[in-house]
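Sat 14:20. Reprocessing the chain from the morning session after the first attempt stalled halfway. Input below, unchanged.
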Amino acid sequence: MNQDIARVIISEETLLHRVQEMGHEIAHAYADNPDGMTIVAVLSGAIIFLADLIRFLPMKLRVDLVTVSSYPGKTTRSVGPKLTNYSAVNVRDRDVLIVDDILDTGSTLSLVQAELTRSGPRSLRTAVLLRKPGKAPSGIEANFVGFDIEDEFVVGYGLDYDGMYRNLPYVGLLRSHLYE
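Finished this time. Tokens:
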């Protein structure tokens, strides 16, 4: 599997250090709420990021999950997000943090934000592991960002290509001959 990676973009050590920092930033932002918060994670890409992040959140929290599909099968181009598994998450009057793996086109976050906003949260913020600032639209912001990266197709640490490579402990650039 490692032979399919052209180069490591973000090492395992760097990822874990930054996720810990993000945990402290998020905990500070929600420190005044004794009721804690609700995290809504976007599956499947955010699962590893979520698992590591919540270990650094010393507060009461609930975790709910939504599944969104944007890259079906062997493609590196989004066909647009579709909610494939969304149970009516109870976020009314709660502080909500959406956790996603990457802010790319912004369409996934827009979709999830719109769905959750209809449910009446007290506040709604977003944390993403990766952001492509040159590609992300100006109307979609993430309150907490792990890393800004170039507009390249990356895998690992939850991000996949055709369902594979999520288990890599780093973020790497997939060799282009594998998907072109």
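Helices lie at 12-29, 47-54, 107-117.
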